[in-house]
Design goal:
The protein contains three helices and two strands. It is mainly alpha-helical and 107 residues long. Strand 1 and strand 2 form a beta hairpin. Helix 2 packs antiparallel against helix 3. It is rod-shaped and about 80 Å long. Keywords: Membrane, Transmembrane, Transmembrane helix.
Amino acid sequence: MVSERDASTATDDGVTDGVAVDGGSTATDSRDDATYDVVYRATRDAMWDVVGTAVLVLFYVALGFVGLSVAWTGLGFGVNPFALGIGLIGLLVGLVAASRVYVLATE
């Protein structure tokens, strides 16, 4: 005759049929915890990637508008070499910002 203890396949660590007898964790619980941690980190990283990309695009758009407005003003005077140089720098900043927005939008 088989006793109840033998039939329940209890092990030395207090785990009976996948259920912890003395409140300890089982292998299934630790695997679920590890899966949860991986999924949680991946979701959090994905959300911050989206938010971060959106903020970066908005920053580049604002930078592009400022750069192009400086370029418009600087290149509009045309006579003063200092204003012309500032206008060219503004134009360069605006073009770089526009290219960065294009790269971020097409990724």
